[in-house]
Specification:
Layout lengths: L4 H10 L6 H19 L37 H5 L5 E2 L2 E2 L6
Length: 98
Amino acid sequence: MPINELDIEKVAQLAHLELALEELKIFVPQITEIVSYVEQLNELDTANVEPALGGLTPEGEATDSARNDEIGGSLGQKKALAEAPDPAAGHFRVPKVL
């Protein structure tokens, strides 16, 4: 599927980025090249590859990370905010990121 300027504009909009027309023209071939490179993975034969669950222990042994989903109690607002460095009106206060 060829990448065009409309595709780049849509991704930029979703990412809240403003791109000039010149930037769009630069990004189209770059993104096309990246997508083509990643699409090479489709050529691999993965029929005999088992899905990976979990990771490895320090000894290199497989771990079993599969577990049953169980409903548990929540922490509660008071307890959750007890260790917050700067709680405010029942919420976590964090620095602005703009």
